[in-house]
Amino acid sequence: MMTSDRWFAALLTSPHWIDLIAILTAIEGLVIIRARGLTPLATLRMLLPALCLLLALRCALAGRAWPWVPLALTAALVVHVWDLAARWKR
């Protein structure tokens, strides 16, 4: 039987909880589109950096090859700058 410390450590180091957070973020995007009336593109620009950061964390926790983590982090930066540029124009 697993002790509570081991169970909690296994939970925190599992990449599967990142999947749940990503699904909840996608649901949040749908709620934002519906409730706030933002366009799907504006909502995507707003949430995509967070999803890229989640992807980087998931790759690190899953032990993927090292280039995936900096690639996901770079994608988060690029999308974040894209979002900032679009907001700056408004």
Mean pLDDT across all amino acids: 91
Span from first to last CA?
A: 57 Å
Q: What portion of residues belong to β-strands?
A: under 5%
* Low-confidence runs: none
Brief characterization of the structure:
This protein is an all-alpha fold and 90 residues long.
Report on the structure:
The protein is 83% helix and 0% strand. It is mainly α and 90 residues long. The chain has one domain. α3 packs antiparallel against α4 (68-89).
List keywords for this structure.
about 90 residues
Would you spell out the secondary-structure blueprint of this structure?
Layout: H1 4-12, H2 16-36, H3 40-62, H4 68-89
